[in-house]
Amino acid sequence: MRDQKYPYEITEHYIPSVNSLRRIYTQHPNFNGNSLLIYELLFDYWNPNYGYAFPNIWQLSIDSGLGESTVKRCITTLESLELIKKKRSPIASNNVYAFNKPVKSVEELIVKFPEVEKYREERLAKIKASEVASKKRFAAG
Questions:
Q1: Which of 37, 108, 119, 132 could share a disulfide with 103, CB 3.0–4.6 Å?
Q2: 86 domain residue, yes or no
Q3: Which residues contact 78 (CB under 8 A, 6 or more apart)?
Q4: Tens digits of per-residue pLDDT, 5-52?
Q5: How many domains does the chain have?
Q6: CA distance 89 to 20
Q7: Closest CA to 30 of 65, 85, 73, 61
Q8: Which segments within 12-89 are labelled E, that is strand?
Q9: d(CA 117, CA 120)
Q10: How far apart are CA 25 and CA 108, in angstroms?
C-alpha cells in the first residue's frame, strides 16, 4: 500500500489553504466561510509578476457562487482583518489586492482584535453546553 496524503488523487489545479484562516480567523465574529472562500479565490488569482491579485467583483461572484454585495462585504471583512490591502489598479478600472501575512495563533488574534476574546468565550460556552446536553440525552436514552 502506498502512502496517500489525501483521500483521493488531486488531478486539477490545487491551491494551498492557510490553516490560520480556517482555525484562527474563524474565531473572529466577522469572519465566516464566505470570507475564507473569497480569500482563497483572491489567493488563486495572485500574480507573482505583479505582486497582487486583480480579479474583478463579477469574476469573484461567478467563481464563488456568491452575490456581488456578499463578495464586497467579504472583501471589506478581509481588509478590516488586515489580511488584504485593496487598491485601485494602476492600469485598469478594477481593484488589485495585496496580501498580508495572517497571525499564527488565537492569542495573536486577540491582541490584534480584542473583540475576539469575548465572542470566543461565549461561543465556546454554547458549544460546551450543547455537548453536555447531548451527552446527557445519549446517556438517558
A1: 108
A2: yes
A3: 35, 38, 39, 42, 84
A4: 767 777 776 666 788 898 999 999 999 999 999 999 999 999 999 999
A5: 1
A6: 28
A7: 73
A8: 46-47, 52-53, 84-88
A9: 5
A10: 10
Name the grid cell of 106.
Answer: 488565537
φ, ψ at 21 (rounded to 5°) = -70, -40
Does some domain include residue 47?
yes
Which domain range does residue 24 map to?
Answer: 19-104
User: Considering just the CA atoms, what is the radius of gyration of the chain in Å?
Assistant: 19
| Residue 92 one-letter amino acid | A
Domain assignment of residue 50, yes or no: yes
Amino acid at 62: I
Q: Is the pLDDT of residue 59 over 80?
A: yes
Q: Give strand pairing partners of 85.
A: 98
**Residue labelled with grid coordinates 498580508:** 100
CATH number at 68 reads 1.10.10.10
